[in-house]
């Protein structure tokens, strides 16, 4: 603290001046520390400030008496300059403030006063913002220590004056505005225990004298993080060096993956091209110089999936290296920034004879163009960033430099100290509201464990057991417990975008949604959760307004607001503007101030004097412009209504006398086109369209539509005045709701910015939980009080390290190791199998969630701190389906669960399936076999599913439908079949998506839900649908003789965890479509246990078995 902040001791203030001179011969600064000394020999009073000293006398009798009193008492004291006079000149008199203390003690040895987690939380409360342990420690040092230049400090203490005090002799330090209590902790070290605001004590104990203590004193970090960081770093250094270290194994894996990426890129090398051309469909065509090189490259490209190529003037340095040293993949500084805007596109075809190769740029490429000539090479920029993020996170954890320094030891399975925390209650009103009723005992336990964990908690959630609701309730409780800055305090993350969006869609904390940071590569749709929340809020406000009686002023407000919005959106002629002014004036003249009415009168008169025109010509021009804008110049759109729209445009131009057969010949060709093929003149038609739009828009005849600036500025003022009037009147709730609704519907960007600034929960994939976009949302130092990871068993541990390394207070992993695991790169897995032990390979294949779940159970038995919970009641599915999933996939491991909901809650009445919850649709091999390489497809299954889904979706518009495949090729096959039925559409990059009209619907309870989704099993984990169709796809007559041939015959169908996910997404009905002959025989019964059990279920009273 500063000397002038001192408030302790007996205070006296008086003025002194030089005893033998007119002034002090220099300008003395106010607030400088001073020392008063008294000579026993001469009797002089000496004032010392810095290196200067003067003999002084009191400026008046009171000052003389004060100096004499100080001399007589001779107590320890601290003094400082309160003020000087005159200011800015050589000082003639100095006002000195002196603090006297009954005693002074010198502490010869250094004294550290620890600041633990509990005290850090108290400091956060005092400063009303989030602070780190280091910031809290500095805050205490600044307020309680009076530092000297020699490194010593003075403190002002009441209580026992010795640092060796026992607990009963605890002391209090007094500082700037606060006091802090200090006592010995369990380890016999001094610990700050409480911070209180400074006040004058009323009891004798509180009025104990304050003494002066001098020594090498400091507050230091004694949180679990601070006390542990150094020791943890040493211990981790030793552990990580060991061959079996978990962190080291994954560090080596990342290194191998880096080398694999480079090796693959170097195998392709680079292709030099001489020119490039933009094609009509958005692709770029590159003309390669060396035909042999191209042929070799195509062998690599055609055997790989989702290959991205970069185009640059020169190949990157790492591809020119002869070594596989992973370090060459890292490039920094200018070289990297110059390449950050390089063109990247996915390989979409080639013509070796013409030496061309085509690349499709991503949708979000910002119209980036490749260099006119240069080289093509396998893109490594995305892999580089992904691997660097992993590497940095692993390094932070391994060096104990992350906000939770004990994290590394937890991952290694070593002992860690326990945090001192108070116990938090599991439930609150807000948390109960999330569940929509009474939560289960296990859900309550999960909340309690997550809230009170000293570091990590794990929640296992079998299908439908309410883990997503548990996460939402946990987010609400964490926000309620926060004692500092709420915005962005919690990170909700998962392994992929779909999983993040699914978890985030259920989040609502203090009425605000989670905002998703980052988006899928190649998309422009942010999908950050805001738009759905905004639409739902608008619907809710409209519903509330419908229940309120509309008052006259509110009705006027609504009508005028609508007129104002329409006027700005659609320019009007002078006559039409006059009609708006009259209507507004008639509506609101009795509700707005006279000044606004006067301005309306002026506008009315001005517009009345405007020259009248013949509206017919103006109308013809507007209709012609509309018809020209509707011309189709895209091949697909032209095939729909191109000739008809061209005919309309020609007719409109003829009526205006603007049609010229010579200039506009292509318009006639388009109007008379009858072939189903795309015409060759579309680019010419586009040029004509642009010219006609310029022609029809350029001239502005008198009376043409335009916005009147005075009226444009006046209308919002009138709306504001009506809002104010509505609020003032009794029952102004509806006015506020109308204003809120107006913002939700018309000021979307501002509402989005406000929500993003205040939302408690930020959501992102593991990889995107750091990086530029997150730093924009959270700040440069991306640290979260809480990190919640959904579907944690799915994430590669290296990716999980990224958000875990950013957690300060608690990490909650939510997942299920009986469902889909993370996936290792096949070539790296093969390398590891040859170079590491079986135990290490097993550790790599095992999810981090499963590893920690089992390790924490062991730790629980040792320290008594509960860190794991398994949810045990599923509410998603009909009880028959719930029992099937439990008995088939969980009970064999002692993790079975109950299905307490009544069957009546899952009635669907779908035509052909009434009263059934399970159906098997047999599509025999004779109808068509599987096709494809690694990714299989079967058209006959896809076509039947598309037809049946269309029938059922149309029959029940309030139900949601999911179509799951084990193979991406089959998912595309289903979407292709749906495209023929108008349910899906092909995008520019060749991929498919469900059309907007089929993507969303409202459930029975009015919620906005996803109506139809088609994808692989991976895209469905964590999701649920009323009805699920599962395409089995494998249909062959391959013989089985050994394990290898078994895998060849059944493929993914043998993976129990994938089957578990695929058969547990439904709520009311599960339909499996496939060749039932694949399930016959002893080998099938063992390898496809889940499918065989389901086929048996379909033969019972709850099921249905039919032939397609």
Biggest sheet architecture? 7 strands, parallel
Give the strand content. 15-25%
Order of strands, main sheet, comes to: 24-25-21-26-27-20-28
The helix fraction, in percent, is 40-55%
Category by helix and strand content: alpha/beta
On the 0 to 100 scale, the average pLDDT is: 84
Poorly predicted regions:
163-168, 322-328, 330-340, 699-705
CA-based shape? globular
Total beta strand runs: 38
What distance separates the N and C termini? 83 Å
- Give the count of helical stretches: 37
Rg from Cα: 38 Å
Describe the structure.
The protein is of the alpha/beta class and 1108 residues long. The strands form eight sheets. The protein has a seven-stranded parallel β-sheet, with helices on both faces. Strands 1-4-3-2-5-6 form a six-stranded antiparallel beta barrel. Helix 15 (530-546) runs antiparallel to helix 24 (733-746) and helix 19 (615-629) packs antiparallel against helix 22 (682-698).
Question: Which terms would index this structure?
Answer:
1108 residues, globular, 20% strand, 38 strands, 7-stranded parallel beta sheet, alpha/beta, 6-stranded antiparallel barrel
List the helices and strands and how they pair.
Elements: E1 10-18, E2 33-38, E3 45-49, E4 52-58, H1 61-73, E5 77-85, E6 93-100, E7 104-115, H2 117-127, H3 133-144, E8 146-147, E9 153-158, E10 171-174, E11 178-184, E12 190-197, E13 210-221, H4 224-241, H5 246-268, E14 270-278, E15 284-288, H6 291-301, E16 308-312, H7 317-320, H8 333-339, E17 343-351, E18 356-360, E19 374-378, H9 381-398, H10 407-412, H11 429-435, H12 441-452, E20 456-460, H13 467-481, E21 490-494, H14 497-505, E22 508-509, E23 512-513, E24 515-516, H15 530-546, H16 552-569, H17 574-588, H18 594-608, H19 615-629, H20 635-655, H21 665-671, H22 682-698, H23 709-728, H24 733-746, H25 748-758, E25 761-765, H26 772-778, E26 784-789, H27 797-804, E27 807-815, H28 826-835, H29 838-845, H30 848-863, E28 868-870, H31 879-890, E29 918-922, H32 939-955, E30 961-965, H33 968-979, E31 984-986, E32 992-994, E33 1000-1002, E34 1008-1010, E35 1012-1016, E36 1025-1031, H34 1043-1050, H35 1056-1062, E37 1066-1074, H36 1082-1087, H37 1089-1098, E38 1103-1107
Parallel strand pairs: 7-12, 7-13, 20-27, 20-28, 21-25, 21-26, 24-25, 26-27, 29-37, 29-38, 30-35, 30-36, 36-37
Antiparallel strand pairs: 1-4, 1-6, 2-3, 2-5, 3-4, 5-6, 8-9, 9-10, 9-13, 10-11, 11-12, 14-15, 14-19, 15-18, 16-17, 16-19, 17-18, 22-23, 31-32, 33-34
Helix pairs in contact: 2-3, 5-9, 9-27, 11-13, 12-13, 15-24, 16-17, 16-23, 17-18, 18-23, 19-20, 19-22, 20-21, 32-33
């Amino acid at each position: 603290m500063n000397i002038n902040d001192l408030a302790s001791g007996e205070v006296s203030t008086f003025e002194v001046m030089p005893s033998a001179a007119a002034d002090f011969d220099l300008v003395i600064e106010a607030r400088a520390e001073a020392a008063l000394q008294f000579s026993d020999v001469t009797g002089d009073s000496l004032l010392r400030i810095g290196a200067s000293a003067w003999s002084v006398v009191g400026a008046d009798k009171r000052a003389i008496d004060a100096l004499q009193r100080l001399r007589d008492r001779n107590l320890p004291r601290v003094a400082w300059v309160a003020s000087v006079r005159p200011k800015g000149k050589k000082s003639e008199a100095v006002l000195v403030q002196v603090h006297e203390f009954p005693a002074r003690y010198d502490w010869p040895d250094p004294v550290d006063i620890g600041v633990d987690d509990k005290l850090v939380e108290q400091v956060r409360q005092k400063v009303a913002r989030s602070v780190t342990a280091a910031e809290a420690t500095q805050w205490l040092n600044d307020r309680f220590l009076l530092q000297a230049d020699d490194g010593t400090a003075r403190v002002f203490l009441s209580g026992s004056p010795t640092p060796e005090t026992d607990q009963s002799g605890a002391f209090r330090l007094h500082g700037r505005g606060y006091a802090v209590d200090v006592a010995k902790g369990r380890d016999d070290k001094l610990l700050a225990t409480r911070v209180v605001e400074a006040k004058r004590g009323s009891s004798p104990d509180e009025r104990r004298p304050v003494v002066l203590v001098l020594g090498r004193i400091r507050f230091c970090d004694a949180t679990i993080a601070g006390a542990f960081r150094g020791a943890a770093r040493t211990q981790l250094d030793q552990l990580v060096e060991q061959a079996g270290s978990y962190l080291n194994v994954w560090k080596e894996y990342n290194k191998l993956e880096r080398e694999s990426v480079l090796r693959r890129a170097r195998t392709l090398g680079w292709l030099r091209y001489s020119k490039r051309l933009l094609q009509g469909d958005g692709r770029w065509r590159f003309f390669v110089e060396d035909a042999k090189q191209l042929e070799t490259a195509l062998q690599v490209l055609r055997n790989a999936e989702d290959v991205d190529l970069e185009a640059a003037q020169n190949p990157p340095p790492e591809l020119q290296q002869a070594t596989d040293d992973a370090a060459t993949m890292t490039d920094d500084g200018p070289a990297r920034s110059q390449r950050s805007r390089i063109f990247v596109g996915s390989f979409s075809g080639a013509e070796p004879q013409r030496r061309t190769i085509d690349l499709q740029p991503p949708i979000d490429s910002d119209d980036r163009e490749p260099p006119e000539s240069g080289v093509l090479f396998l893109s490594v920029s995305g892999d580089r960033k992904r691997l660097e993020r992993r590497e940095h996170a692993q390094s932070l954890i391994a060096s104990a430099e992350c906000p939770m320094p004990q994290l590394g030891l937890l991952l290694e399975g070593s002992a860690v100290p326990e945090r001192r925390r108070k116990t938090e209650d599991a439930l609150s009103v807000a948390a109960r509201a999330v569940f929509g009723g009474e939560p289960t005992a296990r859900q309550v336990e999960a909340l309690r464990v997550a809230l009170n964990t000293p570091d990590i908690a794990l929640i296992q959630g079998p299908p439908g057991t309410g883990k997503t609701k548990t996460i939402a309730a946990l987010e609400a409780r964490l926000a309620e417990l926060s004692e500092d800055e709420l915005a962005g305090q919690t990170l909700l993350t998962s392994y992929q975008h779909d999983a993040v969006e699914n978890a985030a869609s259920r989040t609502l904390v203090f009425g605000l949604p989670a905002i998703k940071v980052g988006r899928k590569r190649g998309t422009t749709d942010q999908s950050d959760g805001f738009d759905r929340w905004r639409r739902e809020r608008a619907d809710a406000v409209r519903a509330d307004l419908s229940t309120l009686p509309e008052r006259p002023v509110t009705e006027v407000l609504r009508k005028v607001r609508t007129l104002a919005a329409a006027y700005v959106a659609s320019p009007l002629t002078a006559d039409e503007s006059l009609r708006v002014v009259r209507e507004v004036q008639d509506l609101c003249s009795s509700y707005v101030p006279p000044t606004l009415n006067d301005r309306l009168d002026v506008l009315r008169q001005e517009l009345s004097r405007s020259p009248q025109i013949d509206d017919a010509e103006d109308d013809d021009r507007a209709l012609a412009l509309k018809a020209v804008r509707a011309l189709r110049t895209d091949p697909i759109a032209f095939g729909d209504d191109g000739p008809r729209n061209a005919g309309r445009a020609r007719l409109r131009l003829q009526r205006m006398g603007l049609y010229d057969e010579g200039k506009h010949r292509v318009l006639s060709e388009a109007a008379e086109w009858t072939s189903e093929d795309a015409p060759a003149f579309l680019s010419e038609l586009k040029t004509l369209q642009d010219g006609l739009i310029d022609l029809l828009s350029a001239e502005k005849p008198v009376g043409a539509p335009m916005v009147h600036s005075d009226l444009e500025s006046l209308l919002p003022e009138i709306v504001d005045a009506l809002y104010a009037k509505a609020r003032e009147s009794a029952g102004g709730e509806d006015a506020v709701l109308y204003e809120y609704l107006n913002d939700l519907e018309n000021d979307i960007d501002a509402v989005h910015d406000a929500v993003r600034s205040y939302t408690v929960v930020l959501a992102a994939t593991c990889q995107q939980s750091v990086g530029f976009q997150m730093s924009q949302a959270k700040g440069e130092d991306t640290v979260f009080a809480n990190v919640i990871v959904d579907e944690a068993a799915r994430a590669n541990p290296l990716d999980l390290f990224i958000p875990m390394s950013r957690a300060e207070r608690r990490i909650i992993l939510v997942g299920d190791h009986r469902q889909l695991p993370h996936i290792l790169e096949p070539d790296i897995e093969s390398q590891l199998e040859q170079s590491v032990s079986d135990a290490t390979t097993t550790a790599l294949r095992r999810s981090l969630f499963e590893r920690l779940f089992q390790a924490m159970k062991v730790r629980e038995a040792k320290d008594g701190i509960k860190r794991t919970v398994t949810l045990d009641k599923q509410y998603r599915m009909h009880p028959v389906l719930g029992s099937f999933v439990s008995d088939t996939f969980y009970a064999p491991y002692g993790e079975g669960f109950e299905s307490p909901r009544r069957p009546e809650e899952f009635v669907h009445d779908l035509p052909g399936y009434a009263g059934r919850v399970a159906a098997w649709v047999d599509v025999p091999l004779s109808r068509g076999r599987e096709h494809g390489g690694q990714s299989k497809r079967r058209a006959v299954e896809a076509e039947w599913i598309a037809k049946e889904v269309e029938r059922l979706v149309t029959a029940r518009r309030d139900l949601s439908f999911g179509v799951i495949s084990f193979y991406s090729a089959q998912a595309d096959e289903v979407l292709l079949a749906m495209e023929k039925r108008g349910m899906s559409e092909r995008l520019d990059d060749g991929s498919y998506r469900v059309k907007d009209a089929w993507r969303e619907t409202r459930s029975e309870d009015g919620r906005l839900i996803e109506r139809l989704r088609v994808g692989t099993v991976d895209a469905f984990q964590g999701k649920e649908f009323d009805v699920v169709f599962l395409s089995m796809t494998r249909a062959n007559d391959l013989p089985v003789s050994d394990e290898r041939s078994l895998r060849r015959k059944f493929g993914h169908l043998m993976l129990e965890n994938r089957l578990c996910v695929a058969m547990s997404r439904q709520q009311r009905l599960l339909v499996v479509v496939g060749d039932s002959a694949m399930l016959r025989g002893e080998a099938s019964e063992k390898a496809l246990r889940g499918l065989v059990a389901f086929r048996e279920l379909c033969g019972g009273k709850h099921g249905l078995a039919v032939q397609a």
